[in-house]
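Support reply, case 0932

Customer input (verbatim):
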Amino acid sequence: MIIKNKKMNLEESLRCFFKKKINNEDTGKAPEGVCPNCWGKQEWEGEFYKKIKANNITPESNTYNNFINEVASKLGEITLKEDTYECTTCNVKYKPKH
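Our regenerated output:
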């Protein structure tokens, strides 16, 4: 149950991040709760833009939802520990934003 909730929160964070990208709003370096170092290495933003351009998908489409689910399942192990702001994969520590 906890894992499912973590995945759901990650999916919500991804949706919010990509929605802001589409609307040219400030997003920060990575979706909330995701390690910016790992996020950049996996290049999900580039994959997102390829899918948008190639398939003309929208946030309401099944293709978009499948993409979000795929990313969330692969990012599940590179999230930040909330109490220490340390990546559980690459062990890079980040300073929290205030």
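We compared this against your earlier run and they match. Two observations from our side: Confidence is low (pLDDT under 50) at residues 1-5. Residues 2-22 form the longest helix (21 residues). Please reopen the case if you see a mismatch on your end.
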